Amino acid sequence: VVKAVKNALWPPSTSNLQLAEDEFILDVDGTAPTQPVLQHIGISAWPGRLTLTNYAIYFESGGVGLYDKAARYDLAMDVKQVIKPELTGPLGARLFDKAVMYKSTSIAEPVYLEFPEFKGNSRRDYWLDICLEILHVHRFIRKYNLKGIQQSEALARAILGIFRYRAMREAFHIFSSHYKTLLSFNLAESLPRGDRILETLSSRLAFLNASSRLDSVGTLNAKQGLKLPASLLTLHRLGLTLEKGVDVDGEAVGAAVDISVGEIDPLEIAVKHSKQNTGRAEAAQATVEQVRVEGIGTNLAVMKELVSPLIQLFNYLQVLASWQNPGKSTIFLMFISYTVYRAWIRYILPSVFVVLAILMLWQGHAKKGGSLVALKITVPPNKNAVEQLLTLQEAISQVESLIQRGNVFLLKVRALLFAALPQVTLLGCMVESMVHSQS
Q1: Residues 6 or more apart from 269 whose CB is under 8 A from it?
Q2: Running DSSP on this structure, what letter comes out for residue 92?
C-alpha cells in the first residue's frame, strides 16, 4: 500500500498529465513493451499508456518514452457513463475477451481499451474493477449529495480499497475473486440489498463535520486539533491530502471515532442482512444457470413443461369448442352468452387477476417457505448438427404458417372495415349495434 501511495505522490517523469490539486494517480499500465494497452475507436487502434486517477481515466497514445496529449474520460461527472467488459479484435472484429468499454454522452462513439496477454484476462478484470470502483463512488457522492469532508471520506475509502487491491495482486501474483471484497462500492453494487448498505453509509458520513474545527481562513486551530475520519486520516498520514485549502499539522490531527452506544452499528446490521440475502440470491442464480441448457430440443422441452398449464387450458377449450362433450359445451356456451348479455365482459380481466392473487396467497400459506416441486423434464434424444438444423427448419416453417394465418385474419378484418363485401359488413354492424344497445 505504501508503495502504491508513493507512486501516486511521484508520478512518472514522462507524464504530461495536467491533474487537479486533489487528483492523484492510482495506477498506470502500458509502459512496458511486453504489456501494451491498445485503444480501439471504430476500426482504428493504437498503443499507449493508461492512467487511472480518482476522477478520470487518461490514455496517452504513443511509444516508449514519448506520448501524445492525453485523452480524458471522466468518471466524476454525470454523463451517463457505461463501463463493462467487451470483445475486441483487429478492424473492429469481436474476437478476444480482453477489453474494457467506456461509453458516455460526452464522446461520439464508445472507446475500447484492450489489455493483450497470452493467457486469461486478469489484467482486463483488474482494470475493470478499479475503474468501476471510482465510477461507483462518484455516483454514490452525487446520489446522496455529499460535500466537503463527507465527499473526501467516501473518495478516501475507494482509494484505499484500490491500493489494497493492487498490493494484494502484486504480492501474490494471482487474481482471486475474494480480493474484490476490498472494493467496497463496487461490491455494494453487486450484493443483494446493497443499496441499503450505501444508504446506511451515507447516513454515517452525514455525522462527519470537520469544518467547525477550522478558522475563517481554512487553517487548523492547533489548540482544538482536527479530527479526521479513519480513511481520510490514513491517506493524510501517507501524504495524500484530499481536502482543499486545509493546512494540517500532522501532530494535531486525530481520528474521528464513530461509535454506536447502546446499539449495534447500523452499517454492520445492513451488511449482515445483505449476507443473509446473498445465499438466497446465489441459489436463485444457480437455478437460472440450470435452466440454461444447450440444444434446441432440450430448450423446447423445458419451455413446454413450463407452459404446460396453459397448454392444458387451451386443449380443454378446444374440447368444449369441438362439442365432444355436448353437455359441458352447452353449459359453457350458455355461460358465455349470459356474460355477454349482462355486459360482464369488462369484469373478466379483473376477475382473472383476483383469482390469481388468491391462488398466490393460498400457495404462500400452504408452502410456508417450503421449496417448489421440481420440474420433471423428459429430455429428447441427442441429435447431431444435421438433425438440429432440420428441427430448426421445421420450427421456422411452423412460424411461417402462423404468420400466414395471421395475415389472412388481418385481410379479413380489413375487408370488413372497408366494406369489400357490403352484406357481411352490414351484418357485422347490426350485431355490434345490438350488443351495444344491450350494454
Answers
A1: 200
A2: G
